[in-house]
Amino acid sequence: MKKRFVLVSSLLVLSISLLLSGNLPAQAPAVWSACSACHTIGGGKKVGPDLKGVTQKRSEDWLRHFIRNSQEFMKADADAKAIFDEFKIPMPPHDLSDAQMKDLLAYLKNDGKMPAEEKAAAAKPVEAPAEWSACAACHTIGGGKKVGPDLKGVTKKRSKEWLHNFIRNSQEFIKTDADAKAIFDEFKIPMPAHDLTDAQIDGILNYIENYKAAPAAAPEQAATTTEAPAQTSFNMDNPEEFQHIGPGNNTWKFIIAVIVLLVFLFDLFITKIIKWNWVHIVAIFTALWFMYEIGYAEAAALGRQQGYSPDQPIWFSHQVHAGQNQIDCLYCHSTATESRHAGIPSVNVCLNCHNVVKKGKRTGTKEIAKIFEAEKSGKPIEWIKVHNLPDHVYFSHAQHVNAGKVACQECHGAVEKMNRIVQVAPLSMGWCLDCHRTKGVQFKDNDYYKSFKKYHDEIKAGKRSKVTVEDIGGTDCSACHY
Fold first, then answer.
1. Phi and psi at residue 438, in whole multiples of 5°?
2. CA 120 to chain centre
3. H-state helical runs in 301-417
4. Are residues 42 and 89 in the same domain?
5. C-alpha torsion sign, points 68, 72, 74, 76
6. Do residue 106 and residue 26 come from a single domain?
7. DSSP of 175-219, one letter per residue?
8. pTM given for the model
9. Per-residue model confidence (pLDDT) at position 203
10. How far apart are the first and last CA of the chain?
11. 51 domain residue, yes or no
C-alpha cells in the first residue's frame, strides 16, 4: 500500500512539474502534456512504454479504446493485458473528444513532429500507385461495397502489420485470424495472393489513407455524363492487330484466276483476237501461279483454324476482364497448371463476381443476366472452343505453364487486348517445332529440371549458355504423338 502511494504521488508531482514547466514541443497538442508524464516518443521507456511507432503497431481503433479506458479494455484484449502486466501501473481513463483524440494520434504518428509542410503535403491528392489498378477491380474507397469491401478508413480500423499479412496472402491469413475469416465469410470470394514488396503495399495503404474523391460534376454537366442506356447489340470487333489473321477467304481470287486462264486459252486457240502470243503466255502463267499460291495456302490451312473467332453464347470481353480489371488468367482457367486442359470456368466462378456486379458499362444487364439464367436452369454455358488440335496430338497445359513457365500470350496472343478471342498462332507442327528448337528452358529455380545434372554442370562451367526444349527431347516424335 505504501509503495503504491509513493508511486502515485511521484506521478502526480511529475505531471504537475511538466505542466508548469511548459517545456513541450511548440506544436504538441494540449492533451500531450498529460501523456508526457509517463511516456516518451523515441526516448525509451519511462513510467509507461515508449510510444514511438505505436500507430504502426496498433490500429487507430485499438488505440482509442486503450487511451479512453485501459482498465476496461484489458479485460477483453490480450495485448492490452500484456502491457499492464509488463508495467504494473494502471493508466487512468481519459475523457477526450474525437478532435482531441485525432490530434493526439496524429502527433504520435509523426513521432512528435507536425511541421507545416507535412500538413500541406497531406492536403494534396496522392497519385494512385501502379499496384492500385489490381485493387480497383474489386474495391472502392468510399464508393461502397463492390466485389470486396469498401476500403475507406481501413488503415484506421486495422494495423499496418495486419493489412500487410492480409494483402500478401489472405487465404493463409484467414486460417489464423478471426477478423480476416469474418471478411471472407461475408464476401465469399477469395482474394488472390499478391507478391508485393513492403514498399509497394505501403504505397497502396498511403493512397487509401490520403485518397480524395474527385469533386462531383456541376449540375449542368451531369446530363452530358449520364450513362447511356444499355445497347441492344454490341461491338464485338477486335482492334486492327487481331483482324485479318490467317489465310482469309481466297474464293474470289481463285475464281478470277480461273476465269482469266479460260479466257486467254479460248482466245489463244479459237478466237485469236489478240495477235501477240506472248500476251497469252504471260496471262496464262500468271493465272496458274495465282491458282498454285492459293491452292498451297488453302492446303496448308487444312485442319487449322488460324484467325478463327466464333460468336459466343454470352458477350464476354477478355479486354474488360483480363485487361481493364487485370483478373489473373488462372482465376478462371484454374487447371492450366495441373492438367492437360486449361479448363472453362463454371457458372459458379462467374457468379463469384457477378453476384455483385450485375450491370456492365457496355452491355447493361442483358449479357450478365444470361449467367443467372444458366444458374437457374442448371445447364452449363455452352462456350465454343477456339483453339483446337488434331486428336493425334498430345498437348499439356501443365507441362508448358507449370514446368516450362510459358506465358499464356506466347501461344494465345495478347488476349488482354481482345474483345473476343481469336486464334492468333497457326498451332501447326512446324510452328511448335520452331519454338522447341529456339525456346530456352528455365532451369534456374525450377525443380522439374533438377534431374538434368549434365546440363546444370555445363551451365555452371560456362560451356553452355542455355538449354532448349529440343535438347531435352522436345522434337522427338513420341513427345507429342504416342
1. -115, -20
2. 33
3. 318, 329-332, 347-354, 366-377, 397-398, 408-412
4. yes
5. negative
6. yes
7. TT-HHHHHHHHHH--PPPP----HHHHHHHHHHHHT--PPPPPPH
8. 0.51
9. 87
10. 89
11. yes
Same domain, residue pair 91 and 149: no
Please state, in angstroms and rounded to a whole number, the distance separating the CA atoms of residues 6 and 94.
22
**Residue 255: alpha-carbon gap to chain centroid:** 50
Range of the domain at 275: 251-300
pLDDT of residue 261: 94
What's the domain count of the chain? 4
Q: Does residue 381 sit within a domain?
A: no
Q: Which amino acid is at 82?
A: A
Q: Is 221 contained in some domain?
A: no
Q: From CA 134, how far away is CA 300, in angstroms rounded? A: 42
CA distance 383 to 195: 32
Q: Summarize the confidence of residues 320-349 as an average pLDDT.
A: 90
**Residue that terminates a domain, selected from 102, 121, 140:** 121
CATH of the domain at 153: 1.10.760.10
Residue 313 to residue 327: CA distance in whole angstroms: 21
Q: With a cut of 70, say whether residue 29 has pLDDT above it.
A: yes
Examine residue 327 and state whether it is found in any structural domain, yes or no.
Answer: no
Four-residue CA torsion sign, 384, 389, 395, 397: negative
Amino acid at the residue 31: V
Please say which residue of 60, 94, 121 terminates a domain: 121
Tens-digit pLDDT profile for residues 57-112: 888 888 888 888 888 888 888 888 888 888 777 787 777 777 788 888 888 888 76
Name 468's bridge partners.
440
At 192, list the grid cell: 488472390
Report d(CA 54, CA 161) in Å as an integer. Answer: 12
